[in-house]
């Protein structure tokens, strides 16, 4: 099998799994019922009451996965990176790429020289159309990349990316061709235009992935709990009508010989030859001849649905390393040290993503720098927003305790979630330069905490506190700037 047909088959084989992942993320998966009769009964209403929680494990990571830009110690390279970042609108491209990588498990960046000298195009590509293929002996090396898509012309296209060339193919114009054998394809373009040489020196397809060799959807372990929640909610909402309109019954006695006061001419109550009198439904009456007693069936207990649903939410959080408060609607989220402890598994997962995705972004932009003529040795570093930073009194007290115990101030701040770039931008590298500000922050936190009544009376607002803290942190140090 050639690289072309192998790529076509692999992309198609992977597509159903990717589509399933997106369906769960968007809440577009139908409920599962063992009985076809029950499925038919509930499918008309179940779709209107879907509650999708399977998206939360993905969103929880994406909220902390923010690439701010790219940096380089070389000023010329840094300026070029900033210009190309803006030119390629990378804020949107990166957001889409990270979302796909989390939802599907895989996403791709494609690098190609721009039309003008010094410009480079960097595109996000979906795993629904694109795939990287790795060397059998070196699983870290991309042997070639492939893209398969259907343009507006209606003829299937495929492009293969190699370290030294790009091959472009189009499906032959014959009926019932699937592109899974070489004879289904012909070169795209005139003469030898279908093969384009390049000097990038590597495959210009860069793989963002949550696992190796190919990723796993971030919410894959949420599929089962979400199915259970969808089923419970659909069943609960279908039974709610019985709470307001209980189903009634009329039981015949041995001596009763008439309808017991019910109007036989009323078609909503009296039996007819054309339909059964025993219909299940909100407000329905089970009508039996010769009635001498009436009553109603007790509706299902709501707790029978809500309690299992709560358990499913807990299992979803446990299996996806997502804190329980990400699924809560009460607003009673933990705070301080308990919040940090609850979010520790999530933070660890995000840090793993920063490392893996960061390597991919760095490799892609090194390739871009070579394509622009900046050379082989350009140092490029992704600039990430902190996964977490300390912003409460308890946290600042912990920082101060570390410093008092002899931990270097810079290290204490790094361990608290502030990036090296932030600490260096403040201009503080020695403990005696920053310790007074840490003291001030702790004292400010104590003062604000003691003014709880004042905050409640709007004497001081949260915005004022935030501005004061920012001013303390960002104020230049005279000795450091001298």
Strand content: 5-15%
* Contiguous uncertain segments of 5+ residues: 478-482
Q: How many domains?
A: 3
- Head-to-tail CA distance between termini: 68 Å
Series of H and E elements = HHHEHHEEEEEEEEEHEEEHHHEHHHHHHH
The helix fraction, in percent, is 40-55%
Count of helix runs? 16
The average pLDDT score comes to: 81
Give the helix/strand layout.
Blueprint lengths: L2 H24 L9 H11 L9 H7 L4 E5 L3 H13 L2 H15 L1 E8 L6 E6 L4 E5 L7 E8 L7 E5 L3 E7 L13 E3 L7 E3 L7 E5 L13 H22 L3 E5 L32 E2 L4 E6 L6 H18 L15 H7 L1 H28 L9 E4 L8 H12 L4 H7 L4 H6 L5 H20 L1 H5 L5 H13 L3 H4 L1
Parallel strand pairs: 11-12
Antiparallel strand pairs: 1-14, 2-3, 2-10, 4-5, 5-6, 6-7, 7-8, 7-9, 11-13
What features would you describe in this structure?
- The protein contains 16 helices and 14 strands.
- It folds into 3 domains: 1-244 and 299-387, no CATH class; 247-297, no CATH class; 389-482, no CATH class.
- A hairpin with a 6-residue loop joins strand 2 and strand 3.
- It is flat.
- 44% of the residues lie in helices and 15% in strands.
- The chain has helices at 3-26, 36-46, 56-62, 75-87, 90-104, 223-244, 303-320, 336-342, 344-371, 393-404, 409-415, 420-425, 431-450, 452-456, 462-474, 478-481; strands at 67-71, 106-113, 120-125, 130-134, 142-149, 157-161, 165-171, 185-187, 195-197, 205-209, 248-252, 285-286, 291-296, 381-384.
- Helix 2 packs across helix 6 (223-244).
- By secondary structure, the chain is an alpha+beta fold.
Please provide a brief summary of the model.
With 482 residues, the chain is α+β, with helices and mostly antiparallel strands. The protein has 16 helices and 14 strands.
């Amino acid at each position: 099998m050639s690289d072309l047909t192998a790529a076509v088959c692999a992309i198609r084989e992977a597509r159903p799994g990717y589509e399933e992942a997106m369906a769960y993320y968007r809440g577009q998966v139908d409920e599962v019922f063992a009985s076809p009769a029950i499925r038919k009964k509930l499918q008309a209403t179940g779709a209107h009451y879907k509650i999708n929680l399977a998206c939360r494990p993905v969103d929880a990571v994406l909220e902390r996965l923010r690439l701010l830009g790219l940096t380089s110690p070389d000023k010329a390279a840094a300026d070029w990176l900033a210009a190309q970042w803006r030119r390629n609108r990378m804020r949107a491209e990166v957001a889409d790429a990270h979302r796909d990588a989390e939802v599907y498990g895989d996403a791709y960046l494609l690098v190609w020289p721009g039309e003008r000298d010094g410009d480079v195009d960097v595109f996000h590509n979906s795993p629904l159309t694109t795939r990287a293929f790795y060397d059998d002996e070196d699983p870290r090396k991309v042997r070639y990349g492939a893209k398969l898509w259907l343009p507006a012309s209606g003829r299937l296209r495929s492009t293969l990316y190699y370290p030294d060339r790009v091959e472009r193919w189009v499906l032959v114009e014959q009926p019932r061709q699937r592109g899974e054998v070489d004879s289904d394809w012909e070169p795209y373009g005139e003469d030898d235009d279908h093969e384009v040489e390049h000097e990038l020196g590597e495959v210009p397809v860069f793989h963002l992935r949550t696992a190796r060799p190919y990723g796993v959807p971030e919410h894959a372990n949420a599929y089962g709990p979400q199915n259970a929640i969808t089923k419970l909610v659909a069943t609960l909402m279908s039974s709610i009508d019985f709470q307001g309109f209980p189903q009634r019954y009329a039981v015949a006695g041995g001596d009763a010989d008439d309808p017991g006061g019910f109007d036989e001419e009323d078609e909503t109550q009296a039996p007819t030859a054309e339909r059964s009198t025993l219909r299940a439904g909100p407000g329905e009456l089970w009508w039996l001849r010769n009635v001498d007693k009436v009553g109603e069936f007790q509706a299902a207990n709501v707790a029978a649905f809500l309690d299992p649903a709560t358990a499913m939410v807990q299992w979803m959080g446990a299996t996806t390393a997502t804190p329980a408060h990400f699924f809560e609607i009460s607003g009673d989220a933990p705070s301080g040290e308990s919040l940090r402890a609850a979010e520790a598994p999530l933070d660890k997962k995000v840090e793993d993503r920063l490392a893996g995705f960061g390597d991919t972004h760095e490799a892609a932009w090194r390739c871009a720098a070579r394509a622009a003529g900046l050379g082989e040795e350009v140092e490029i570093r992704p600039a990430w927003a902190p996964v977490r930073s300390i912003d409460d009194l308890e946290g600042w007290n912990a920082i101060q305790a570390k410093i008092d115990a002899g931990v270097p101030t810079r290290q204490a701040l790094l361990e608290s979630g502030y990036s090296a770039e932030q600490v260096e931008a403040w201009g503080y590298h020695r403990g005696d330069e920053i310790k007074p500000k840490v003291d001030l922050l702790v004292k400010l936190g104590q003062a604000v905490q003691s003014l709880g009544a004042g905050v409640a009376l709007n004497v001081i607002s949260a915005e004022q506190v935030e501005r004061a803290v920012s001013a303390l942190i960002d104020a230049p140090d005279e000795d450091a700037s001298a």
